[in-house]
Amino acid sequence: MHLDHLRWLGGPNLYVSRPVAIARLELEELTGRETTDFPGFADRLVPLLPDLTAHHCSAGRPGGLLEAMARGTYFGHVTEHVTLELSSMVGREVFFGRTVWAGAPGRYDVILECPRDEPPEDPIVERLLRLAMRTVAELLEGGTPALGPELAAIASAYGQTRLGVSTAALAEAARRRGIPVRRMGRLNLLQLGHGRHRRMVWAAMTDRTSAVGMEAAADKMLTKCLLEEAGLPVPRGCIVTSPEEAVAVLAEIGGPVVVKPLSGHHGEKVSIELSDPAEVSAAFREAATVCEEVLVESYVPGRDHRVLVVGDQVVAAAELSPARVTGDGRSTIAELVALANTDPLRGEGHDRPLTRLTIGDTELAHLAGQGLHPGCVPADGEIVMLRRNANLSTGGTSKDVTDRMHPDVIRLCRRVAATVGLDVCGIDLRLPDIGAPAPPEAGGVGVIEVNSSPGLRMHLAPYEGRSRDVAADIIDQMYPPGATARVPLVAVTGTNGKTTTVRMVAHLLGQDGRQIGMSTTEGVYVGNELIYKADASGPRSAQMVLGNRTVETAVLETARGGIVRRGLGYDRADVAIVTNITDDHLGVDDIDTVEDLVEIKALVAEEIRPGGHVVLNADDPRVAAFAERPTVRRRKPVVRYFAQSGANEVVSRHLRADGVAYFTEDGWLVEAEGGRTRALLPVGDVAGSFRGRADYMIANALAAAAAARALGVPMSLVARGLQTFDPHRCNPGRGCSFRVEETPVIVDYAHNPAAVAAVGGLLRRVWGRDGVATVTLPGDRCDDLVMETAREVARSFDRVVVYEDEDLRGRRPGEMTRLIIDGLTQERPDVRISTAGDLKDAVGIALGLTTPGEPLLLLYEKLQPVADLLQTLGAAPTPTSETPR
């Protein structure tokens, strides 16, 4: 087998609503061969990966894969399942896979689910896939693959890139609330929500965590001063910078003492309960390896506790115990440590609920102090402490004691958090009993440390006691129950009219003053400002809009290319518009038929929020049928049809069922619901519609009106928006009319047969004669589509100037000109054809072919060169309402 390429779809896609990686496999010598061609293959595979017996496959039940292999299945399919099983073995919880034919013998696309928060384009997927391919190949050759070393390396790499326990819990809690979650790169940084409701969280640090509070918490001495001045109990202590000073502090405050780095964390190089000057001196040297300044403070007897305060509420408390093992009467301490580390809950660092135990210098010294060493065999049931300090990061364990907290202790902790000024605060306490009264004057309690961005795992998965969903408490603090995390989102797809409809929807929604974020093929806009100039109709641009803190409503052009190559850039829309589906982009991205396009565009209608709105073109049977797709029906959306006439059978049937529709009637745009009809405005008043003669512009206006009304825009504002949607200002490059001396020039982006037919028909209706067309077409379309588009040009124009854009999109120079000419002459042998080297020459030739008052249609690939040329020619923008009657 050969891996041709691998690509990632980070958002909802044609296969599943979660991220996937798609691997293009070439089976090469295995083409046409199945598992039954290799007797004993399954018998060798299953002992190697025994959990494959539980894979459902298409049978929908455990054992389905084994049944498929027994009947005979191809090796792309086998590789898919082996990859999924290897993923499970390294801790990646993924379940979805699919293998589909990719257009040639032996060529398959293997679709593999990826964890939601895995970094984009993470190499882990490719490593697992290649290991699966090698495993299958070696088994076919009669070998026995050694999976252990490579799997261990992959598991280690995955542990480094996966979200930490705290961050993963926050992501899960946010999703349970329906809050959008996006991991930022490879960091433990999450973006929550959309637009003006967007928030950020990094582990347990939120975007509203006080920087002053964090600095205060990071400086242990400063924390002590703040708390002491507030009358809160803290141990006595001093900062020292030498062993001699540390010993002097011991003599001053008396033992026992604690020695720790002033800016340390996770219990690193902390020594406790020291009374001997030599121990204190040695502890100073250890702590100084972390920080030059070392804190020596009095030791507070009692048990170690961590209390979590979120906002002004105590939400969890845990009692902490140092790393320890329990003897069985047979095993050495070293063996007991190794046995404890086989617990899947233990991992390196903070990626698991518990940290792996170690026997390092600190542990050896502590054992020696007890008269023990790693080779000792503890008695059955004997507990051996490996360390003094009770930190989870050094192998300690936690027991939930939240319900035992005395009200005095709760009040104390709330005061501590408020004094330091942290919205999420971890407080380290020592006291004999967290359930007993602990007023400050009683003594016997000490606030040892205050922590910003505290770890949550001790509360989420305590070693003993009830788990606490503290991640949900933090999310509720960021988004109080009932608060929204989203802005209204309109997604627009289709073949023709997408950009115009997006711009028109944004214009209508902006009539009430809200800040609109918009992505189109021309760029990303926030309000009236272009913030990113590019073909911005894919997921990256959608995320750019949704991540902008000023956006109050999002309108997203959602094109075929982005869906196929990267998936959607959002998880669900409030309104989905499908304008139409016609021949276009065939032969690109393995899209060969209109039916392929239908499946791609349908995703936008399917990824709608439950109870949202789908706006569908009832004049296009393919689009109208989207309302009946099972996935759409499950979301129970409000279906809003639009059509040129209320006589449309789909619309009539919909209205009889008390549905909502938009169409034209007696020269008016109307909104109808059941048997009631309300007039919006006269058809001829729609800006850019050439007094209502541009049918496609009326269709766009109806779709935009439907979306705006779905989001609650009043009828009067919708009407005003449709009247003021000036093409030159609001929709440049789409149906814009200019005048160069006596020649009307219509600039449009029509680039497929349906679009050219619509524009050609408009010019005939307006000017009553054939005009001149200046034509270039995208080079990434298949030959048949290019020629059909050219034939459509010939049906409307008897004089055509052909030129090639600078971006040939993979074509050879002159190739597109030849195809266009062939299409023109096939349809209309008498058509007068001129060729030009570039846009400027083409327009010059075309202007020379026109007679006074005769229209010139200018098709283009990039708008800016057209705008520059028209300015050079002194072209004057003309309102479409001034065109001939």
Automatic annotation (TrEMBL):
Catalytic activity reads: [L-4-(L-arginin-2-N-yl)aspartate](n) + L-aspartate + ATP = [L-4-(L-arginin-2-N-yl)aspartate](n)-L-aspartate + ADP + phosphate + H(+); [L-4-(L-arginin-2-N-yl)aspartate](n)-L-aspartate + L-arginine + ATP = [L-4-(L-arginin-2-N-yl)aspartate](n+1) + ADP + phosphate + H(+)
So what EC number does this one have?
Answer: 6.3.2.29, 6.3.2.30
The enzyme class is ligase
UniProt xrefs under InterPro entries: ATP-grasp (IPR011761), ATP-grasp_RimK-type (IPR013651), Cya_phycin_syn (IPR011810), Cyanophycin_syn_N (IPR044019), Folylpolyglutamate_synth_CS (IPR018109), Mur-like_cat_sf (IPR036565), Mur_ligase_C (IPR004101), Mur_ligase_C_dom_sf (IPR036615)
Give the source's domain of life in one word. Bacteria
Where does the ATP-grasp domain lie? 224-479
Gene Ontology molecular-function annotations: cyanophycin synthetase activity (L-arginine-adding); cyanophycin synthetase activity (L-aspartate-adding)
Q: What are the protein's UniProt keywords? A: ATP-binding, Ligase, Nucleotide-binding
First and last residue of the signal peptide = none
Short name of any one Pfam family annotated for the protein:
Cyanophycin_syn
Oligomeric form and interacting partners: Homodimer.
Q: Which family does it belong to?
A: In the C-terminal section; belongs to the MurCDEF family.
Q: Which PANTHER family match?
A: CYANOPHYCIN SYNTHETASE, MUR LIGASE FAMILY MEMBER
The UniProt function text for this chain reads:
Catalyzes the ATP-dependent polymerization of arginine and aspartate to multi-L-arginyl-poly-L-aspartic acid (cyanophycin; a water-insoluble reserve polymer).
| Family matches, as NCBIfam families | cya_phycin_syn, PRK14016.1
Protein name stated in the entry? Cyanophycin synthetase
Organism equals Actinoallomurus acaciae
